[in-house]
Amino acid sequence: MVKLLLVGVLIAGFSAPLTAQELEDHDAMLMDHGDGHLMDMGGGMVMGQNPDKLPGGCDSISETKEVTVHAGHKYAEKFPGRMFAFDTQEFNFKPCTKLTVHFVNEDHIRHQWMMHGLPKYLYPKGMFHLEITGPAKISGTLILPPGDQTYLVHCDIAQHMEKGMKAQLKVGKGAGDLPSIPGVTAYVLTDDYKADLKTLAAKKVEEPLPVAAPAPSAPAAQPPAAQPQAPAQDSGISGVTVIGLAIGLLLTPYLARKFKGMSASEAVAYTFEMLRNLIEFAVKQISRLFKRIFSNKSKMLPGS
Ligand SMILES: [Cu+2]
After folding, report:
1. Are 165 and 155 in contact (CB under 8 A)?
2. Ion ligand 1 residues within 5 Å by Cβ
3. 4 vs 131, more confident
């Protein structure tokens, strides 16, 4: 009977929510390192703390607010496919609010409450940032800028944001919604389950062709050869143009095959390389012809 009671007490102890004693409170242990940067020996960190400097455009502090944000794996359970989350995904405050954030990390790993896009003259790197290895609590204060704006709040530990620890803080009316906020906006990193390897390969081939196909036929490939002649000709279609067009038409199927699987830039680079080789070849042939003519002349001269 005593044993059973003991087991009962133990089970109750494990399943009970975190008590104040278990939750390490770092607020009293923090050492001020200046410039709003506070740290303690337990790995707690506050960056960009600003309890008193007004951002430009704020005549005074409009409101003083406090918010408690919980972070942990269990808050992601209601979001399919996510691993970590805050308990709140959207915050809204008046411009020029003095805001204190109490960040409660309930996981036995490190989490952050990191806000981005703040004015850099007040907040180093434009960030306000609370960080702690849990289960623990840490608090920090900042003054929100004026104007309607949406700020990104996330945990910057590798993959924590991608796994769901992302929120948005709107000042005033905000400026739209950020993507991939769990339960608020659509996840942008969706995979395409329809695409098998065959259709993926087909896509790759289709891509460069719209750009590459017109190049060998008429416009892009011909001008370098035809244009120098054009001003001297009075008729619309010169012989060179006709020859160029014919070459272009003959080359099209060959080029289309060559361009298969190439990206647009690769195809353009390839076309230019080929043109260069063609011109080089032509110049060589012409210079050889000239050489032969002149050497024949010089041979003929002494004999006559
Ligand atoms: Cu995290």
Report:
1. yes
2. 111, 155, 157, 160, 165
3. 131
Indicate which CATH number applies to the domain containing 102: 2.60.40.420
Residues 120 and 160 in one domain: yes
Between the CA of 114 and the centroid of ligand 1 the distance, in Å, is 10
Task: Classify 90 as helix, strand or coil.
Answer: strand
In a domain, 50, yes or no: yes
66 by DSSP, 3-state: which?
Answer: strand
CB burial of 30-61 (b: ≥16 within 10 Å; e: otherwise) equals: beeeeebbbbbeeebbbbbbbeeebbeebeeb
Question: 27-36, 58-67, 101-110, 195-204 — which is least confidently predicted?
Answer: 195-204
Structural domains counted in the chain: 2
Give yes or no: residues 153 and 244 share one domain.
Answer: no
**CA 97 – ligand 1 centroid, Å:** 26
- Quote the ligand 1 centre to 17 CA distance (angstroms): 20
- In angstroms, the CA 20 to CA 278 distance is 81
- For residue 105, report the distance from its CA to the centre of ligand 1, in Å: 9
Residue 239 lies in a domain: yes
How confident is the model over 224-259, as pLDDT tens digits? 444 444 444 455 556 666 676 776 677 666 656 666
Task: Quote the domain boundaries for residue 235.
Answer: 197-303
Which CA distances in Å does 45 have to 91, 114, 229?
22, 11, 72
CA–CA dist 84, 73 (Å, integer): 4
> What percent of the chain is modeled with pLDDT above 70?
64
pTM of the model: 0.58
